[in-house]
User: Fold these one by one.
Assistant:
Number 1:
Amino acid sequence: MARCSQGWVFLLAVLVLALSTPCSQAYLKHKKFKTKTDVYLSPKFVLEPGVSSNKYFYNIQFPKGHIGLKSFNAEVVDAEGRSTPLNETYLHHWIVLRYYARKSYVEPKQQSPYQLSESDVIWVENSGACQPGSLGQYYGLGSETRKTATHVPGRYAIEVGDGKGLPDGFEERWMLNVHAIDTRGVEDNLGCTECRCDLYNVSRDPSGQPLPAGYTGGLLCCTDGAKCRLKRGFDGEKKNHYLRYTVKWVDWSEFLLPAKIYIFDATDIMNSSAPAAAKHNCQVEYDVAKSCNATGVCLDNKWAKISIPTGGYVIYGVAHQHKGGLGSTLYGQDGRVLCSSTPIYGNGTKAGNEAGYIVGMTTCYPWPGSVKIKNAEPLTLVSTYNSTQMHSGVMGLFYILVAETL
Ligand SMILES: *[C@@H]1O[C@H](CO)[C@@H](O)[C@H](O)[C@H]1NC(C)=O
Ligand SMILES: *[C@@H]1O[C@H](CO)[C@@H](O)[C@H](O)[C@H]1NC(C)=O
Ligand SMILES: *[C@@H]1O[C@H](CO)[C@@H](O)[C@H](O)[C@H]1NC(C)=O
Ligand SMILES: *[C@@H]1O[C@H](CO)[C@@H](O)[C@H](O)[C@H]1NC(C)=O
Ligand SMILES: *[C@@H]1O[C@H](CO)[C@@H](O)[C@H](O)[C@H]1NC(C)=O
Ligand SMILES: *[C@@H]1O[C@H](CO)[C@@H](O)[C@H](O)[C@H]1NC(C)=O
């Protein structure tokens, strides 16, 4: 309550100020709301023709303090800082995870996040909706990153650095996972970006077990260092790359309203009566079989019914799909559209508009208050792909920001 009333006193002060100066100016000039921008480079990763690089970078550079994140944009650049086009370096995905680590703890290189020491690391995942340890990131995109808006509108922001649940002797840190595939000289471009196991000559998973029956492609086959089949005799130099990421943020203040992150997965099989850790079963990836109906329409719809215990107002939404994706929609219980997001395919040659690649996703910015999710409302997520040909290891994710207060 104290928090709330202070906020109102402050709001009143801004309104009073607004009588003497135009409101927007008074609002923007106040240093508390000044948006700061930091641009960072990830540690380097080295690529050579055909090679898949899937790196985990721990304790990355990130704005410090109790802040509200306003946007996170990223792209792959080369050693000279030039944007690398997708037809040479395919950006499969990047994700950013938040965690608390014992101050003295040094993360071992190249361990995946859920393999780190459990007594030294506490993952601070988003608000849901997958099982713990799955899709818990704060941000994450793929080839679409250059043309996908990520900003949080208005007075909303993603609150971090608040120290909630931070044990003594621990500090907040961030991890960046970058998965890129160098497709210079490859025999089958689509197959390499879709991580086809035969092209990578992989028949066992990273732990040495045979691949699951029927597994033709996906993350198990384009692990770090795996190499996709090249055209005979192709040779190309090694190249250094970096993920350049731009974070916009504001110092946290009573005037800001927290936005919660939820990520839905079209492969989720939800069991409401199961205990919390087993309620969801997000697979992250799935395959699209080649299939057309009697009238020659070739569409694949993957859908899941999912709910979140505490609803609120949707203030932002975006889907994540791979090549072949035709869009994704999140529906409410009565069939109303909460948000629909479609891929933007490039049609040029330059980085940001590469022909045939998904270079952006459309986003939703509903007027705050206009799109409401009720507590535990059954939602339906539908992810549509073009099934003229088969696709392996595709994704059907949907990221939304929910505000519980207006
Ligand atoms: C990528 O596209 C550019 C522009 O069309 C072209 O010049 C270049 O050779 C292509 N690179 C590869 C590896 O296909
Ligand atoms: C494929 O992997 C097998 C062992 O798993 C190996 O014997 C074979 O040489 C590999 N082929 C190529 C072309 O790398
Ligand atoms: C859902 O979870 C409950 C409790 O764990 C279990 O008894 C039930 O078999 C599960 N239902 C399905 C369809 O998996
Ligand atoms: C094929 O799919 C399209 C699009 O979903 C639909 O309009 C059409 O009725 C379908 N045709 C048949 C024969 O099922
Ligand atoms: C590429 O797409 C844009 C936007 O959809 C369009 O305006 C432009 O004419 C297209 N360019 C080519 C070369 O097709
Ligand atoms: C699906 O893909 C095929 C070939 O890849 C293409 O010809 C067709 O136009 C696509 N359909 C849609 C609806 O995008």
Number 2:
Amino acid sequence: MGNGMPTIVEAYKGTDETTIQSIGCGGMGGEMTAVDARDGKIVRIRPYRMDERYTAEELAPSMWELEKDGKTFRPAMKGAPNYFSLAYKNRVYSKNRVQFPLKRVDWNPDGERNTQNRGISKFERISWDEAIDIIEAELSRVIESYGPFSVLCVGEDGHRESKDLHAGGGMHANLMSKLGGYTRETRTPDSVEGWYWGAKHVWGSGSNKGLGMCAPVQTGYNSWNVIKDITEYSDLVCFDAGDWELTQNYGSQFLSRLLKYWEELGKEFVVVDPFCNYTAACHETMKWIPILPATDSAFDFGVMYVWITEGLYDKEYVETHTVYFDKLRAYVLGEDEEGVAKTPQWAAERCGVPAHTIKAYARNVGRKTASHCHFSSGAVKVPYSHEAGRTGAYKLAMQGLGKPGVQQLHLNAMVVAKEKIARSTTAPFSSINQCRMFYPTVQSLPRTEVANAINNGKVKWWGSPCIVYVETSEQFQEFNYPAPADKGGAKIHLLWSEKPCNMNCWNGGFTFQDAIRSPEVECFITNHQWLENDSLFADLVLPVTTCLEDNDSMGAGMSVALRRSGLTPPACERVGESYSDFEIACKVGERFGVRDQIDLGMTQDEWLKFGFDQSELGSEISWEDFKDKGYYFPQIDPAWKDLPAGMRPFYDDPVANPLDTPTGKLEFWSDALAEHFPDDKERTPMAKWLVGGPASEGWTHDESLWGERCKEYPLLVTASPARFRVHVQGDDIKWFREIETCKVRGKDGYQYEPLWIAPEDAEARGIADGDIVKIFNDRGTVLLGARVSERVMPGSVMVHKGSRVDPIAPHLDRGGAINLIAPQATVSQHCKGFVVTGYLTEVAKVTDEEYEGWKKAYPDCFDRDYDPAIGINYKSWVVE
Ligand SMILES: Nc1nc2c(c(=O)[nH]1)N[C@H]1C(S)=C(S)[C@@H](COP(=O)(O)OP(=O)(O)OC[C@H]3O[C@@H](n4cnc5c(=O)[nH]c(N)nc54)[C@H](O)[C@@H]3O)O[C@H]1N2
Ligand SMILES: Nc1nc2c(c(=O)[nH]1)N[C@H]1C(S)=C(S)[C@@H](COP(=O)(O)OP(=O)(O)OC[C@H]3O[C@@H](n4cnc5c(=O)[nH]c(N)nc54)[C@H](O)[C@@H]3O)O[C@H]1N2
Ligand SMILES: [Mo]
């Protein structure tokens, strides 16, 4: 080539090493990819053919197939990785990679700590020895002064890159458990808040017992054959707050293919969503019903009204499988003390969907065989999400949940066929994932309440002291932070994070920033691959390897067509001086003489063999063959097709197969809630339409269009995951940042996160496409770039979550991290789950005067190194 560049063919000739990797970024493996490297550096990542090392005969016992009307569907041999993993070279070699240990320049552990400067002052490079010296001294000091429970291990569990042995999010806890304990930051049932706090009181503990989505108790972990059942029996597939073409693709593109197949079978689809999401936009057969955010329970009651008045529900099932329908009926028809009929017109005035559309939807679902699909559902991440969680469950209960073709298809029900050997959703190798071991401790705190704990010094909450949410009754257990002093309870003074994105993934981001700046927080350490989000507020940042640099194993996440296990040797050389979280815990553990309790005296290869031995894989393949091939697809139970689908056993015989609710049936009203929280006016025993109100009147939220705050902040924001990021991961991928829907280039050259706004709402505010705008409420202001579009329901705006924070001043940010202005308040009084979408905001164009004013007041922020191709980066924050 004339420019001296090699041609593509020449460029890959010298490839000398290819490894197979699984890049899922949900903490679980994605589809397999082949990663080609040369001279220790990745040159490209490509889809992998699963039959490369196995013959069709060898694969046959692991394959499933769906069949309907002579059309078949089976896993594709050529993997369909998510676009995110194919672009991962950009992540490994990002200009934002943390290469060396960093210390905030004006944080001096022996002098001024300048905690108020977190997120303002920059970093300098230090050596690993210096970093470990500081950690040893700080841990020893706070343990000595306040006791071990003053250390909060942030980020226990949750999502991250896909790793097993090297997984972060619990290695610090592993270490601290050997040093006397720590405060556990428990993950709330984040994906599924409304199902957990609401629907569990309708259908029992549910899937995985923990998540609160439906599943017969007796099938244990998974809901087998739900996809098969829908394929065979459903005429109508409803996506109420689920975007398969966006959210399912973070593992692989299997469910996109499945949608195509269902389309070929002639199934009808409907999407009820404030945004014309990708599922609605990509399929011409999809009908989009725009709805205002956080109003699904009103919509649902309108639908139930039609079903009751027109006899379009399964009366016999309701009679035999449910209790307290009379109470629901009275509420819906207005025959209770409230006396308000929830007619389609009543619903329309609240959810913004015209009454005739509500009727049409109700009749369609009522007459056809319909299933409801979502991974977790955006409607259950809003204020008072237990109401939408419960009305979602009521709708299914009224249509005969478990009947052929009447299913809830959710995250744990994505696995098509049951395997012969016992596995978790991750892999047999999760047995070496020490982060999943939940080291016992006496003091814990929900992730949603960390800021309150620091700012107010105490927190009362209900739930489970660890992420293993199990029984519904756990919601009646009360906990207090700090734990009683005689048990060692102590206030938090040191934070150590292995998932540094609380301000960007959880509720109340700006409040979390305030908390971190408190002098009470004497030291804040993060382990991180990239210099972003919480790490910008840290005192010490420790460089972490990406999943492509570790010697590890792989499992398969939920939206992967064929589940498998495998080994993932390093694909490339390590970047900078990075170590995995496991290795960091070992290094620090060495100083305290407990290293052997963490690595158990085993090499990494021995750990991988140990993981294999712990699993049941040995019953199907030898270690030698497994190591030689590199991966293996566990065999399918030959009788998988005969297993009852989802809730079928309960449908067939509710007496023989009761739910684990108090009555064994579906409960429209919960005596357990009435008994335990008799004075809770928010989560009452039966779901109702709830608008909240001022705090002075005892309400947790005033986030609706019918209260006081909406007068100032009239737009409801939808903030769900981004198509081209996985939560906060991947915002620096330059291949994606070029895409129009990913970023909006402001006239200052900055790549702003898009604010999607309807034409009439934009016009009313004098906003044109491409303008720099601000979204704000009483919690703060975030700058964005306007995308004027009819894809948004008027009265609402849409901002994808996960853009990185780029602080200008306290409560003012340029990076587009929408969770900064999410409520700090949790789901409701007794439900400490998060609220991250469906809350009130206002939007305005940023005037030149205002912009110049900020530039003058905060020159450091506007002068930071900025590369539009990847955004803010390492150079913006590290002094040479
Ligand atoms: N507005 C809004 N907010 C939401 C949601 C929404 O729909 N809307 N969805 C919610 C849901 S469903 C979920 S599950 C949560 C997800 O929230 P998280 O589980 O917090 O999400 P991730 O982005 O996966 O966070 C991983 C963090 O750890 C870092 N990381 C990755 N791998 C490693 C590692 O190996 N070691 C270390 N030390 N760090 C690592 C990443 O850079 C990132 O900062 O977000 C929730 N937040
Ligand atoms: N690309 C990508 N894929 C992902 C993730 C990611 O970060 N990026 N995250 C993964 C994780 S951990 C999870 S839990 C799943 C979540 O996957 P999903 O179950 O699909 O749920 P959400 O992404 O929360 O929301 C999906 C849809 O709900 C809509 N929605 C939001 N609020 C409301 C509302 O009040 N009412 C109604 N009717 N609709 C509403 C949104 O517009 C969106 O189209 O996605 C997973 N897949
Ligand atoms: Mo999630």
Number 3:
Amino acid sequence: MKYISTRGQSPALSFSQILLGGLAPDGGLYLPETYPQISDADLTTMRGMSYAELAYAILSRFVDDIPADDLRAIINETYCADVYAYTRQEQNAADITPILQLEDNLYLLSLSNGPTLAFKDMAMQLLGNLFEYVLTKEGKTTNILGATSGDTGSAAEYAMRGKKGIRVFMLSPHKKMSRFQTAQMFSLQDENIYNIAVNGVFDDCQDMVKAVSNDAAFKAQYKIGAVNSINWGRIVAQVVYYFKGYLAVTQNNAQKVSFSVPSGNFGNVCAGHIARMMGLPIDKLIVATNENDVLDEFFKTGVYSPRSSEKTYHTSSPSMDISKASNFERFVFDLVGRDSEKTRTLWSKVDNGNSFDLKADGYFEKIADYGFVSGSSSHASRMQTIREAQAKYHVVIDTHTADGLKVAWAYFDKQTPMVVLETALPAKFEEAIIESLGHAPERPSVLNGIENLPQRFTVMEASAEAIKAFIVENT
Ligand SMILES: *Cc1c(COP(=O)(O)O)cnc(C)c1O
């Protein structure tokens, strides 16, 4: 299995070769040359599998340069009940992604039982173990540099803490994250984790990362790496739970299932698209956005019009506050028949700050063949959905998941099973739950008092020179 760039001007590489990198050298995103196909018999066999067995059955089709026994060991270490321990009372941690029935044919797939209470752990935990394995084997090290406004940074830190050959330098806007999110990250005492609180906003943090990445000499000398949402390893790990969710709510392979996915950078739902391309019987893939609705606009009109970062709204579902969807190019590449020249033309417009319209050239009609539909939510509708979910289903959901449920209701026909992906636990967004329900959500008891633990972080001015000097000093 080789990986190619959506822009067609980079050499094809193996899984381990693309694992530690980000964009392809031509600016494109990596995708497998072809999607491995799952037969009816394969799917039947998968019905009896544990999460780890299923993960191996799927990932081994994408990874052919890690020996089978090693890959199996990495997966078994990643997907075990100890790691995904924050399960709701009535659910079984051994399921890794337990399913909760809300009503007839409507389900919630719990993806947020990992250490940072958000679905990003599902892929990031695997990435941490894969990184350590590949780096150790090749005798290499890496310094991961990232910017976060919350979920990504904490998921990366909890995945990389204590890992050999890896340091993490994570920039976050000083005093701008919730107390809980800050405590989650800053209470880590591991020596290989560096929390840097930047005097500025999230965009300042991102600009510092970009400036360092654009300094090719520094980047090479200090082995700067990334774990952002375009990383192929993250996408492929997420394919697994679409299979798990499908198998959990069906009795036979003739049934189809729809998924509703709270979306920001299009990473999560991109994995659903790949599962569908592999032959998983998915009916609809529902892209649910918040007020930052670039994707909803595209799926309704065929126009992709990324916003400038000043026009990004700060919402009560902050992990979906994006101005452009960094994984979207992967889907469009498939939609235009894997025509890399066409993809290059479209993204030269995007990279110059413009939009593109797929209606004019006939591609927009093809979207239906891929099962995609979309919708969006507002602050008021998310608050209302949290209240309704509590009243109707006796379950407390977070604001991101509320966005997914709100849009799922609009497409739910009561016949086709519908799975809403739970992308965070409510405990992570306490303030919003108090606003909606008038009381705080339940918090996993071991996290009680996390805000009072000693914190380890460095305050820094928003300057690329400052972060470079800090990296030099600490490596
Ligand atoms: C990251 C995140 C999302 C958005 O996922 P994408 O892969 O960027 O589409 C949604 N909800 C939560 C809680 C997240 O952390």
